[in-house]
Amino acid sequence: MDNDEFIQRIREKIERLTESRIDLHIDLEDVNRLEVELGPEVPQVMLGANIYNYSGFARMGVEYAVASIRERRNIEPMEFHLLLARN
User: Fold this and answer.
1) 77: domain range?
2) Model-level pTM greater than 0.85?
3) For residues 41 and 36, what is the distance between their CA atoms, to the nearest angstrom?
């Protein structure tokens, strides 16, 4: 699977789990980035380029984006760790 197809699958998964459209951006400079900007319209999901190298990081990025979008707020690090521990 090439990078474009991988990104498309991540986008589709987040959109399916949140039942909303997103804009997905890959940060090539901050490779560990996990961020969601919740604006009045479409959520902006920014994931670091480590998603290409580490499947666990990609899964974590999806989980973080879904949790933040569902809650309509950015999830704090400790809360996110607890969420991951439950799953």
Assistant:
1) 3-86
2) yes
3) 13
